[in-house]
Every structure is written in C-alpha cells, then in structure tokens.
Amino acid sequence: MDLNSDQGLGRLTDEELVERYRSGQDGVFEELVVRYQETLFHFLMRFVGRRAVAEDLFQEAFLQVHLSIDTFDTSRRFRPWLFTIAANKARDWLRRNNQINAHVLSAPLEAGNDDGRQVIDLLESPVPLPDLTAEREETRRLVQDTVQALPDHLKEVLLLAYFQRLAYKDIAQMLGVPLGTVKSRLHAAVAAFAEQWRAAQGEWADQL
After folding, report:
1. CATH code at 139?
2. Domain span holding position 142
3. Is residue 1 part of a domain?
4. What are the tens digits of pLDDT across the range 50-81?
5. Which of 40, 62, 96 is a domain's end point?
6. pLDDT tens for residues 91-116?
7. 4: pLDDT strictly greater than 50
C-alpha cells in the first residue's frame, strides 16, 4: 500500500499522521488540515460568532500545531490537543476584543420540549433552513438569546460535549478542571437552558 497517496494517508490515525509529519513525509500536514477543516471551523464559528475571525483562528490554530508538533505526545489523542489550542486562541480573541461567546445556533426548537434534549439538536445543526417561517425565525432568535445568556463556562462545556462530542475526560483535560466539574457544569447548563427557555417562551407568548 502506498501510504504517500491520499487514500493511504486517510487510513492513518491522527496520531500516526503526526508521527509521519515529524519524519518529514509529504502531504501529511495537509491531510490533518483537511480532516478537521469542517469540524474545527464550525467549533470556532460557534465560539466567536464571526466567520472571518473563525477563519483566522483556524489558521492560527494549525500554525500553532505546526510550531508545537514536537511537544505532542502521540500516546495521547490528537483531537483534544487540537481543540485545546483552538479554544485558547478563541478565548484570547474574545478577551482582546471584549466579546462574549456568540454561539451560532441555527435549528428551531419545538415548543413544549423542555427536557434539555433540544440543546443537542441545536448545537448539531450546521446551517439555517432557507424556508423558515417568521414564527420559526423568532423561535430561533429566542434560542440564540437564551444560550448567549448562559455564563461562559456553561456555554463552553455545552459546545464541547454536545457539538464536538468530546469525551468528558477530554473536556476536563482541555479546561483544566476535574471530571466531576465537567459533569456538574453540563447538568447545570442543561438545567439553566431549560429554565431560561421556558421564561423566554412565556415572554414571547405574552407579546402575541
């Protein structure tokens, strides 16, 4: 098998690609970039809420990967390391620009479903539907406002757990907190979202 071919590289794990990149094999770094160009970009978009900024941060994250590649322990998983770098870049940008996390949530929420499952559905929806009615557009706006009203540490853990589907232990490593803290933050985030969503729905109904 020709491991220099795109097909051959695609069969390798992220960690194997890192090892081959260190050894100087051509095309390996590009494979890593392509492999994560969609998921990492969407992660950054939801973190900072601006496409141009997310594009810049994406490039900065992979530049940091290139510069720090020799420090990566290939006995560990590459994905949490990459997202740690990207999240740090995003946090730095938010602090420099005095911004709050602006999660881009695109899917509408069905009324009456307040059990927390909607958080997962929302974070997994990549793009808005083109034929949303005015009512569903208003619902989507309310969802965005509700999530943005959450404290930053709760929004962050929701994004990592439900959109990126990172394991709790990986999130704990990224955020530098105990595993139990990750679980308690997720529980608190879903509960806070459900409570604030019910309140937002009530206010909206009163205006109709």
Report:
1. 1.10.10.10
2. 117-207
3. no
4. 889 999 999 999 999 999 999 999 898 898 89
5. 96
6. 888 888 865 443 333 333 333 344 44
7. no
Whether this model's pTM surpasses 0.70: no
HEC per residue, the chain:
CCCCCHHHHHCCCHHHHHHHHHCCCCCHHHHHHHHHHHHHHHHHHHHHCCHHHHHHHHHHHHHHHHHHHHHCCCCCCHHHHHHHHHHHHHHHHHHHCCCCCCCCCCCCCCCCCCCCHHHHHHHHCCCCCCCCCHHHHHHHHHHHHHHHCCCHHHHHHHHHHHHCCCCHHHHHHHHCCCHHHHHHHHHHHHHHHHHHHHHHHHHHHHHC
